[in-house]
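Sequence, please.
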C-alpha cells in the first residue's frame, strides 16, 4: 500500500489482499512487505485474509544484501511511532541462495522485522514463516511471529501480542 514516506503518515484501517511473489536475483537491500515500508503510526492494519488465500509473500532466487520480509511493515521511520491492533494472516515463504557481506542479515517476521517503534501492542500473527535459504555466511538471522530487533532498534514494548503461525527453518 505504501512503500516509503518521509513525512511519516499514519496508516489507519488499511488492508492488503494482494499476494507478493518474487523469483529473481535481488542486489542491495530487499524489502517485501504486506502493508507498508517506512511509515509513521500503524493502527488496525491487516495483511491478508483469514482463509489464507491473500496476503502471502513468496520469494525465491538469490539475494545480495539485507533481506526484510513482513506481513505488516518493514522498517519504521526514525520517529518513535507505534504499531497497534494490526493482524497478519499472510504466509511468508523464502527459498533460494543468499550471498552477502558481513553484518547483512535476514529479518523475517509476521508483523515488523526491524523497528524504531516505541511499542507493538495488541497485534496478532496467524501466518506461517518458512525459510529454506542456503546462506554462505555464519551470520545470525532473525525470525519471529511478531517482531525482530537489531542493534539499532528502539523497540521498548511488545504488549498483548500473540503468534499463532508456525516458523520452520530448513537448510
Amino acid at each position: 500500500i505504501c512503500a516509503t514516506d518521509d513525512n511519516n503518515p499514519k496508516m489507519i484501517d488499511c488492508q492488503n489482499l494482494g499476494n507478493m511473489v518474487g523469483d529473481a536475483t535481488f542486489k542491495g537491500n530487499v524489502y517485501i512487505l504486506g502493508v507498508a515500508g517506512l511509515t509513521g503510526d500503524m493502527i488496525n492494519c491487516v495483511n491478508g485474509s483469514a482463509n489464507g488465500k491473500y496476503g502471502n509473500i513468496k520469494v525465491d532466487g538469490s539475494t545480495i544484501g539485507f533481506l526484510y520480509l513482513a506481513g505488516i511493515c518493514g522498517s519504521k521511520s526514525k520517529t518513535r511511532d507505534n504499531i497497534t491492533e494490526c493482524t497478519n494472516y499472510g504466509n511468508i515463504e523464502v527459498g533460494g541462495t543468499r550471498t552477502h557481506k558481513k553484518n547483512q542479515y535476514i529479518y523475517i517476521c509476521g508483523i515488523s522485522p526491524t523497528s524504531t517503534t516505541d511499542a507493538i501492542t495488541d497485534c496478532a500473527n496467524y501466518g506461517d514463516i518458512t525459510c529454506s535459504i542456503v546462506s554462505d555466511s555464519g551470520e545470525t538471522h532473525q525470525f519471529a511471529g511478531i517482531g525482530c530487533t537489531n542493534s539499532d532498534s528502539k523497540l521498548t514494548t511488545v504488549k498483548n501480542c500473540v503468534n499463532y503461525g508456525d516458523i520452520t527453518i530448513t537448510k
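The chain has a mean pLDDT of 80.
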